[in-house]
Amino acid sequence: xxxxxxxxxxxxxxxxQPLERKIAQMLLVGFKGTHLTxxxxxxxxxxxxxxxGVILFxxxxxxxxxxxxxxxxxxxxxxxxxxQKLSDIPLFIAVDYEGGRVSRLKPKLGFPPTLSQAKLGAMxxxxxxxxxxxxxxxxxxxxxxxxxxxxxVDLNINPKNPVIGALGRSYGKNPKKVVRHARTALRSYEAxxxxxxxxxxxxxxxxxxxxxxxxxxxxxTYRKAELYPYRALIDSNDTRAIMGAHVYNARFDAQLxxxxxxxxxxxxxxxxxxxxxxxxxxxxxxxxIGEEYGLKETLYNMIDAGIDVIVIGNNxxxxxxxxxxxxxxxxxxxxxxxRIDKERIDRSWRRIRALKTALRP
Length: 361
Known about the structure:
- By secondary structure, this protein is of the alpha/beta class.
- It has a single domain (26-357), classed as Glycoside hydrolase, family 3, N-terminal domain (TIM Barrel).
- It contains 13 helices and 15 strands.
- It has helices spanning 2-15, 19-24, 41-49, 73-86, 117-123, 126-143, 175-191, 228-235, 262-272, 287-290, 295-305, 323-336, 342-357; strands at 27-30, 53-55, 59-60, 65-66, 92-95, 97-99, 102-103, 147-148, 195-196, 198-201, 216-217, 241-244, 247-248, 278-280, 310-312.
- A six-stranded parallel sheet has the order 9-8-5-2-1-15, covered by helices on one side.
């Protein structure tokens, strides 16, 4: 009985956090480096500020070189262990590992080859999708990554779409096929202790432009069927995390893109579709957001919209070693100014805490 009480007290202390730590838990930040030292800015972001997680990349867009965070399975395994040891609360250690061209864990670095979602969809063999998803989940598990920004459930409405269709990232145009394969992948990841994140809500498959390069308006190309995968997978309780898209869709909000839109995130995703899990933003430094809104206003709009975890890849444009500190400062100021209330932060913290509680050690 005494051991149980001590365990409960320790657990309660772990999750009882001051306001600034709750804010920091809402940040998922990118950094440079293949191993950790106290001189790396991410060290203080984790130890002193208590950020919620990191996102890893194989390629550094600023230097145009591979080797930003990932060089081999052994190196990556060591890095993720170093990261987790720094944090009292389990970190989200995230990556984009969809299969095919969008994969930070490449065969040339010693990781297993993978098929794109488009190829799996064309085969339409759920056993093959499960086999690949199991392989990818085991690979992530082995190197200490616990969150994957996949599967993609965008419908391949525009095959020439430069960021979805042209890169083979969609299982197909048929929403029921997309759901079948996505559900198979989701369950494989979950079975191996990996948190999968559906993307890109409410749909990026009909776009004609890449939101990495500027504002994307899908108001005229969007199809109602693009919501079907989300509705189906939420209704069947197969998803606990969803990523919002940096797309403007006047059907849902005539003013702001989805990741900054309260009618889209809170109104559509949470209220209409009934999603109660964690909502991640797409990278806020993509030009669709980064070039249109300042950091403080971006953070305000995202939090007001209902985003729980704000992704700052720190790999698009100029690298900013102080980005986490600045973001925490801006959010704290927004609370002080009365634009964001503490209960709004608490709602995200409770969702994040629930998701992290389910993480395997």
